[in-house]
Design a protein that fits this description.
43% of the residues lie in helices and 20% in strands. By secondary structure, the protein is of the alpha+beta class.
Length: 210
């Protein structure tokens, strides 16, 4: 079992990244919600917490290993639980998880089928099944949603906090906005006004920064 891989993030694609280590490029599938954060790290050394799955037709003798990576170990744990739901395979889960595990876990614990069925490939029946099978089992992830990734908003400057409130007013989730702003602070210097923080944070969101 490959539990994690550390290397230079050489490239970021729509559904995967290439991690280079020792002259070898590893293609690692990643969930949709992490693409922006990973794109902001292009060219830097990162550690991905990984799961290894086998894909293909066993009877046809064509089986390929599929490495799946997560920037945070708690995301890896949530993914394991998510794919335990009947009918939610690995590929479906990777595409469906366009929102953070903290948010998805909160919807599950709240029984919010309407929110869950907005995820790509998750219809009403699948959403109901997810709630039925996982409610009460992902509370630890839901509790972390408001402070996802261990971000402490009190560490933000006044300008960052103003930018955060603007982003929330524009429809971004608080935990995601905090994450983008924290990453913006790591990547830039001499950013002073809320408007400047907004521009840099949205570049992180879209993967344009880095």
């Amino acid at each position: 079992m490959i539990s994690h891989v550390t290397g230079q993030l050489a490239d970021v694609h729509e559904e995967s990244v290439v991690l280079e280590r020792g002259g070898v490029g590893y293609t690692v599938a990643v969930p949709q919600y992490s693409i922006g954060e990973l794109a902001a790290c292009r060219g830097r050394e990162v550690t991905l917490h990984t799961l290894l799955f086998l894909e293909g037709n066993q009877t046809g003798g064509h089986i390929e290993p599929q490495l799946i990576g997560f920037m945070h170990p708690e995301d890896k744990h949530f993914f394991r639980r998510f794919i335990s739901v009947k009918g939610i395979g690995v590929r479906k889960a990777l595409k469906a998880l366009t929102d953070s595990p903290g948010h998805v876990a909160s919807w599950i614990e709240e029984g919010d089928v309407q929110a869950l069925k907005q995820l790509p490939g998750i219809g009403p029946r699948a959403a109901e099944l997810i709630v039925a099978e996982l409610k009460g089992k992902v509370a630890d992830h839901a509790l972390a949603a408001s402070a996802e990734r261990g971000i402490d908003a009190s560490r933000f400057s006044a300008a960052q906090r103003d930018a955060l409130e603007i982003m929330i007013a524009l429809g971004d989730g608080r935990s995601d906005a905090e994450q983008w702003l924290e990453r913006a602070g790591q990547l830039t210097a001499d950013v002073e006004t809320p408007d400047e923080w907004l521009r840099v944070a949205y570049r992180v969101k879209t993967g344009a920064h880095g």
